[in-house]
Amino acid sequence: MPYFPFSKNHAYIVDIDIMKFGSCCKRLRSERKSIDVFSAQLKKVMSDEETRIMFTKVCDLDELLTLIQSFVVDGRVLVPVDISSETLPSPESKASLHQLVLGAVLLASVCAAFDRIDFIFETSYTISRSTNSSALTFLHVFAYVCGEKLLAHGDYSLIMPVVKSLVTYCEKENLSPGFPQCAKCPFSDGAVSMEELSVLLLKQLSGCCNNVGMTAHKSATDPDDALCNLGDALSLLELLASKMSWGWVCENIINELFKLLDVCAVEAPLTAVLVLLGQISRLGIDANGFQDTEVENIRVKLSSFISQSTSNKTGLPVQFAAVNALLGTTSVSFQELCNLSPLVSTSTGTDCIQKWFSLLSDEQKLLLASLLSADVS
C-alpha cells in the first residue's frame, strides 16, 4: 500500500481496493469506467471551495504530486510505520502493475482537478525516457484522464508532439510487449514520423542557438526563455536518439550536430551542443564498442574542433565541454590520461587531449582536474 506523508506533521495512507480495481479487467480499455468514476468523484470533491482550502492547509500540493510521481516512475511501495516513533524506517517492496496504474490515475486526476497539467507534461517526459514496459500504459492513463487539457495544450512547445510521436512509433513497431496498438490512439493526432521529428527538433535547436546569440547582443528576447528553450530542444533530441537505433541516429542527427558546431559561435549553445554530442556518442559505444566507425568520426570531429579552438581562442567552457565529450569516446579516464607519458598514444582522441592539456596554465589544469574529479599534480 503506498504511503504518502503529505506534510511533516501528517501521514496518510491511500487506501484503495487495488485488487477489486485490477481484477475487473485485464487491459486499460476495460478499466475506463472505474477511472471515470474515480476522476469524476475527485474533481467533484475538489471543486468545493471549502474542501480545497482545508486541503491546502494540511497538504503541500507540489510535495504530494512529487511523491505520487516518484511512486509511478520508480515503482516502489513504502510500508506504513508508526509515525510516533523517533525513527521512521522505510521498508520497500515492488509495486504491482495494478498499483502503478492506480497511482497514474491518482496523479492525473489530482493534476486535472487543480489545473496542474504542467506537472503531467513533466511526468510524461520522465516516463517517456524510462525503459519501463508499462510506460505506454501510464501515458495512456494520462491521456484518458486529462484529455484535451493534455493532448491539445499549446504552452509546452515540442514536448507533447515528441511524446505523441514516440508513443505512436512504439505502438506501431510493437516496442512495448503486452501493449497492443490502439485502434485509434489518443496520441496519433499530431504525431509525425521519427525522421520528421528529428528535422523538427534540429530546426528548433538551430533556432534556439540563434536566439541565444541574439540575446548576447541585447536583443529583446528574454535570455532565460532562450536558454530554457535550448535546454528543452537538447533534452528532447537526446530522448529521441535514445529510442532509435545507432544507425538511424548517425543518419538523422549526428551529421546535423556537426553542422551546428561549424556555424554556432555563441558560447552557451555551443557548449550545450558539445555536451549533447558526447551523450549521444555513448549510444554508439554501448551498441558497437569504442571502435565503431561513427564513434571514430565523432572523435575526429571533436579533435579537429579542439585543435581549432586553441588557435582561435575559443572560451574555456567550450573547450572543456569539447574535451569532456571527446574523453567520453575513449576507453581511458582523465586520470589515466594524465598519468601517460606525453604524446605516447596513437589514438586520435587521447593524443589531441594530451596536446591541448599541455597548453593550459597550471591554474587552468587544476580547474579542469576539479571539474573532472581528477587529482592532477
In short:
With 377 residues, this protein is mainly alpha-helical. The chain has 18 helices and four strands.
Description:
The chain has 377 residues and is mainly alpha-helical. It folds into 2 domains: 3-149, no CATH class; 194-371, no CATH class. Helix content is 66%, strand content 4%. It has 18 helices and 4 strands. The protein has helices spanning 18-23, 32-46, 49-58, 61-74, 97-113, 117-129, 135-146, 148-151, 159-172, 194-216, 223-243, 246-263, 267-288, 293-311, 316-327, 334-339, 348-358, 362-371; strands at 3-7, 10-13, 76-78, 92-94. It has a two-stranded antiparallel sheet. A hairpin with a 2-residue loop joins strand 1 and strand 2 (10-13). Helix 14 (293-311) runs antiparallel to helix 15. It is elongated and about 65 Å long. Mean pLDDT is 80; it is low at 1-26.
